[in-house]
Amino acid sequence: xxxxxxxxxxxxxxxxxxxxxxxxxxxxxxxxxxxxxxxxxxxxxxxxxxxxxxxxxxxxxxxxxxxxxxxxxxxxxxxxxxxxxxxxxxxxxxxxxxxxxxxxxxxxxxxxxxxxxxxxxxxxxxxxxxxxxxxxxxxxxxxxxxxxxxxxxxxxxxxxxxxxxxxxxxxxxxxxxxxxxxxxxxxxxxxxxxxxxxxxxxxxxxxxxxxxxxxxxxxxxxxxxxxxxxxxxxxxxxxxxxxxxxxxxxxxxxxxxxxxxxxxxxxxxxxxxxxxxxxxxxxxxxxxxxxxxxxxxxxxxxxxxxxxxxxxxxxxxxxxxxxxxxxxxxxxxxxxxxxxxxxxxxxxxxxxxxxxxxxxxxxxxxxxxx
Length: 370
Fold this sequence. Notes:
Helix content is 51%, strand content 15%. By secondary structure, the protein is an alpha/beta fold. The protein folds into two domains: 8-211, Alpha-Beta Complex (Spore Coat Polysaccharide Biosynthesis Protein SpsA, Chain A); 244-355, no CATH class. Helix 8 (214-234) packs parallel to helix 13, helix 9 (248-270) runs antiparallel to helix 10 (273-289) and helix 9 crosses helix 13. The chain is globular. The relative contact order is 0.14.
């Protein structure tokens, strides 16, 4: 599978993934890759189960990170630090590649020579049968299908880039993102700031194996995605056109959701049914504005599925609206504190590469050990 200098290094960050790896790494081993020389690197991020032992049965190299887990940002950095390929391809431990995934990635590199970073999407058949899992998977796929082509950010679940570029930009921010959050989105913004061409190619697909519950989805959407994403925007680290989940239409929908929440609170505080009717009208408008995705859900899984996930999709916008409000309050409060304690004329201190914990200063918990 490898040569002294492979063209592609496939890097799989793994934490407590012993049960998943026989499936996901086995699929990588079975991938069709005619003429493509590649290596498989698994990074065991402080696992307490048999992740490292299982990975050793499939991988060319297993990197063990000691200490508490540092999250996928640090694990990906550690894998990149020992990779020998010209290109890096990150594949999450809960993503099962298809037989043609590696070929599709290689083909995309050849067809789009100007692209230095390329990522794909989930396929339409998630492994978990539950309603929440199917909804999450199809929502991700819908967003990526609509955003196909030049992209403004990056996805680390199934995406890669030139190795030299990864090291030049500095890798993922391990100090800010010590657990799974939006480390790949923030990394993508830095790529765009550097003038890099990023491509979203839906022909590169993998099957998502995660089994979502509603509680897990609610916490992830609020704490690990919407809130840190809004913080990035408010800090000015998100520049350029708004695409994917932060396109202007999506921002408008979040605003409608926030207004509906405000109206509902007004109905409770002032015991006025007019506010309740306003909240209902705004929620109805929000649902109507999403008819295209509900029609798509119906084509993919039937009308009953589309109706069943309607409350989940509305919750998604309400959660984003609350997160946006919390982030704005944090931002305003932070600026006010700085003004009170440092004065209005002093510049805000920046964060260096070393302070962000990105390569080469840090590669995660304890550093890589082969």
